[in-house]
Amino acid sequence: MNPILYEINTRCWLHELSERLGRLVTLATVPDEEFARWQDLGFSHIWLMGVWATGPRARALALEEPNLRRAYDETLPGWRQGDVAGSPYSIAEYQVPDALGGDSGLKAFRGKLHRVGLKLILDFVPNHLGIDHAWLRERSDLFVQSPAPAEGTFGQGTVAGRRWIAHGKDPHFPC
């Protein structure tokens, strides 16, 4: 039997569940009906996309970028700054934010999945490390860099001094 994967935008899904149920839902408190529905639909694996913590610097950039603000206006009319958590592709650390239930919430969620015969998928994509990630300060040698400012780089203070780190960009947004 081939695996059948269901990718979930974790933050949006938990927000929608909370709205629908009229109470805060975290990974630890997802209702059993969700797991039963996935089983009924024939899924074998649940992929929680966007489950890792983002940082304040990346979030600030997401709030400042005009093209992103226009996209927020189109997608979520009346949005507020609190609606913007930061990009799931700009990871500050591989820990689950408290707002999603924390690492203990993830553990509880995984336990519920396993009890009903479903598997959990989480990703680790090194080029999704955000500008808040500790490796930029502590392990800058892991990144493509320049000793001086250059197009496509950003300044970063590291244990080795100031460096200019190559900045990956989403092809859909100029920032």
Detailed description of the structure:
The protein has 175 residues and is α/β, with parallel strands linked by helices. The chain folds into two domains: 5-132, Transcription Regulator spoIIAA; 134-168, no CATH class. The protein has helices at residues 10-21, 32-40, 56-64, 66-75, 102-115, 135-138; strands at 5-9, 45-49, 53-54, 91-93, 119-121, 145-146, 153-158, 161-166. The chain has a three-stranded parallel sheet. A three-stranded antiparallel sheet has the order 6-8-7. A hairpin with a 2-residue loop joins strand 7 and strand 8. The longest helix has 14 residues, at 102-115. The chain is globular and about 55 Å long. The N and C termini lie far apart (43 Å).
